[in-house]
């Protein structure tokens, strides 16, 4: 739960400090990279970490992730310019790529499907506390101290999380020789980097129809196509293609992709939107954004009862409906914004994502054995990170394109129009979420290790948590 809190706090604490950071370091056009580079490095590293976790165990992988996250946080605290901060955020993202999926995977190892319904309440409580603490700390540090403390606060949390894991988590993993698919990992990393680069800088640093614009996107498509070919022949692929051949897993990936896009789309611009248009303080804008991440754990804590009674599909569809209602309402509210109205819309969106994201992930985990659970959980985390990275890149491209080189404070009216248009893209992501929820099979597993589950040759005994 401490590792979950580590990621949950960092998901919201930076958004409220963006105006302060830009005011000190400059680079308004560059600030979307603070989110996208973090999400990009997180996304491309998740499949590698997940494959390693299924071969060498969860504990070594999550400890490496915590170490990288700690290093990235320290570098962020010392950043002297916006490019330096972007690079430090990339290191932090490499750590988050191990921390977030491994925390979820370990919970899947320890609890059965029925027990996870109760465990959701504990995990949701961590998200609820973090959703309030994160934006509040971000606002307090920005307004009364220094935004650098946003990153320093991660240091004691990383040390505490590592100590708890080393002391309490026990694994029994047979050590064997494995062949890591480094070629596939390299193709995926470079391909996604070029994709995000082309989306974020197109229409800003260079025209869309230009050698850099078309070249980056075209080369990204070629490298990702080569990645698929390499994965088909790899002995131990970093992202097995069988994940994309199961209806339940594909549905979970679509939900994860859409959840990432919706979450980062709102988290990136809602605080700046309120501060630029309504002159809200960082604390007020932070608490408004907290409504999003507060609604999520409240509904997630109840989703266990719902999916055990009505099924995974019905629960996820109910959540998708709430997300659609909330995002459409937010587009309408953005034309005449108020703090209360924006907060209410964010709460509805968060409540919907809690009902959609948790049941789909648990259903996917329950459909495979221990040896594949890391890959399946990692694939879901990869989809969410990819949705976040591409989502913030597309939204950043739309907003920067409509701003024509001006910033939010110098032309609030133009910024309001740009963000309103961008929020239409968030509605489109909500539609993808609804499609993913509808694809979930009507009859999904309710117990772990079904007889037809695919067992990898490297499958080992489950991990346990000591008292």
Walk me through the structure:
- The protein has 467 residues and is mainly alpha-helical.
- Helices cover 78% and strands 1% of the residues.
- The protein contains 16 helices and two strands.
- It has a two-stranded antiparallel ribbon with strand order 1-2.
- It is globular, with a radius of gyration of 21 Å.
Give a summary of the structure in a few sentences.
This protein is an all-alpha fold and about 475 residues long. It has helices spanning about 1-15, 20-25, 30-55, 60-75, 80-110, 115-145, 150, 155-170, 180-200, 210-235, 245-275, 280-310, 310-335, 340-365, 370-405, 410-440; strands at about 170, 465.
Total number of helices = 16
Order of helices and strands: HHHHHHHHEHHHHHHHHE
**Secondary structure tally: strands:** 2
What gross morphology would you assign?
Answer: globular
> How much is the radius of gyration in Å?
21 Å
The percent range for strand residues is under 5%
Low-confidence stretches: 449-467
- Major β-sheet profile: 2 strands, antiparallel
Helix content: over 70%
N- and C-termini, Cα separation: 15 Å
**Which structural class do you get from the secondary structure elements?**
mainly alpha
SSE arrangement:
Layout: H1 2-13, H2 18-25, H3 32-56, H4 58-77, H5 82-110, H6 113-144, H7 149-152, H8 154-168, E1 169-170, H9 182-201, H10 211-233, H11 247-277, H12 282-310, H13 312-335, H14 339-366, H15 370-403, H16 412-439, E2 464-465
Antiparallel strand pairs: 1-2
Helix pairs in contact: 1-6, 1-8, 3-4, 3-5, 3-9, 3-15, 4-5, 4-8, 5-15, 6-12, 9-10, 9-15, 11-12, 11-14, 11-15, 11-16, 12-13, 12-14, 13-14, 13-16, 14-15, 15-16
């Amino acid at each position: 739960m401490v590792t979950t809190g580590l990621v949950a706090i960092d998901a919201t604490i930076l958004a409220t400090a963006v105006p302060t950071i830009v005011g000190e370091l400059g680079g308004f056009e560059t600030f979307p990279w603070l989110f996208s580079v973090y999400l990009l490095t997180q996304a491309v590293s998740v499949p590698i970490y997940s494959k390693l976790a299924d071969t060498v165990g969860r504990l070594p992988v999550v400890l490496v992730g915590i170490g990288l996250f700690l290093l990235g946080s320290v570098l962020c605290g010392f950043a002297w310019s916006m490019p330096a901060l972007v690079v430090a955020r990339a290191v932090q993202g490499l750590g988050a790529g191990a921390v977030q999926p491994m925390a979820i995977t370990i919970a899947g190892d320890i609890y059965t499907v029925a027990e996870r319904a109760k465990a959701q309440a504990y995990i949701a409580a961590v998200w609820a506390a973090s959703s309030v603490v994160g934006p509040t700390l971000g606002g307090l540090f920005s307004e009364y101290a220094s935004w650098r403390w946003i990153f320093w606060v991660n240091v004691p949390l990383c040390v505490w999380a590592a100590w708890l894991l080393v002391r309490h988590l026990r694994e029994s993993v047979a050590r064997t020789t494995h062949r890591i698919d480094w070629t596939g990992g390299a193709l995926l990393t470079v391909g996604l980097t070029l994709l995000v680069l082309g989306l974020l800088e197109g229409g800003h640093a260079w025209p869309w129809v230009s050698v850099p614009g078309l070249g980056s996107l075209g080369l990204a498509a070629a490298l990702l196509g080569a990645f698929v070919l390499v994965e088909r022949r790899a002995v131990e692929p970093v992202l097995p293609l069988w994940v994309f051949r199961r209806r339940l897993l594909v549905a979970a990936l679509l939900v994860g992709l859409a959840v990432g896009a919706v979450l980062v789309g709102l988290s990136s611009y809602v605080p700046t939107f309120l501060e630029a248009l309504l002159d809200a303080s960082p604390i007020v804008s932070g608490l408004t954004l907290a409504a999003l991440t507060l609604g999520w754990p409240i509904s997630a804590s109840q989703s266990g009862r719902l999916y055990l009674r009505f099924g995974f599909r019905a629960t996820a569809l109910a959540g998708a409906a709430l997300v659609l209602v909330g995002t459409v309402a937010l587009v309408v509210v953005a034309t005449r914004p108020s703090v209360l109205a924006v907060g209410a819309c964010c709460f509805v969106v968060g409540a919907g994502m809690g009902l959609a994201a948790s049941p789909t992930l648990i259903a996917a985990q329950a459909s495979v054995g221990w040896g594949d659970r890391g890959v399946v959980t990692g694939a879901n985390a990869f989809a969410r990170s990819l949705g976040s990275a591409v989502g913030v890149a597309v939204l950043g491209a739309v907003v920067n394109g409509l701003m024509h080189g001006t910033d939010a404070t110098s032309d609030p009216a133009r910024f309001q129009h740009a963000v309103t248009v961008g929020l239409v893209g968030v509605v489109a992501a909500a539609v993808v979420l609804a499609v993913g929820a509808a694809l979930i099979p009507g009859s999904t597993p309710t117990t772990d290790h079904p007889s037809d589950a695919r067992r990898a040759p490297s499958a080992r005994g489950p991990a346990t948590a000591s008292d």
